[in-house]
Input
Amino acid sequence: MTITGIPVISGARRKELCAFQRNLGIKFRNIELLQLSFMHRSISNEIHSKASNERLEFLGDAILGAVTASLLYSTLIESNEGELAKIKSIVVSEETLSGIARELQIDMMMILGRGEELSGGRGKKALLADALEALFGALYLDSGFKKAFDFVSRCITPEIVKVRENRGKEDYKSRLQEVCQRKFKDYPSYRLAKHSGPEHERYFWIEVSCGGRTFGPGMGKNKKHAEQEAARLALAEL
Output
């Protein structure tokens, strides 16, 4: 099946797509679907086509949600609806998905317009997360739900484990993100205010901004701890 609007795939690109599949342990019957999953809308004008991965992303988002919900339902049998929803929100978040996309080297496979390329599009979390969801959608269309379920499960299960391992710890950063999104429709932004001390005993001070206000700084022996402390201080005020 030929997909309208996709330029002919060169021999070199075809080799890249084949290598990508081997590394992930998947196999597309229609390699054009795989190619489409990497095509950001910014390329449309340059190839004079409306083809992009946006529709695949829409489909992949639904598949991701269904697979994640199914995994959580079957493995966390003692968790109530609220707990399941909270874990799911972390697992399917842009932060988590963009991290998975980097591990799969999707950033190297994306097809971007010149402007998006020059502005650092390969490193943008939103674009990476969207491309991963588009890949899920493409695999579903190409190989069916069982193959898509298995692949999504391989990607998502380690993230579920990470969240479960941290359930007993207070995650102020995640809580602050939830509050900022709900109250301000905004995301927290962390900034290193200063650091001091020798390499083996360094301390960091980090501020966090959200909703037009800046909180902190929080102090810690590494940046992660300092960010958590800054988030804790922000939550106390908010």
Notes: The beta strands are 189-196, 203-210, 213-220. The chain has two domains: 11-165, 172-237. Residues 65 and 89 are 10 Å apart (CA to CA). The longest strand covers residues 189-196.
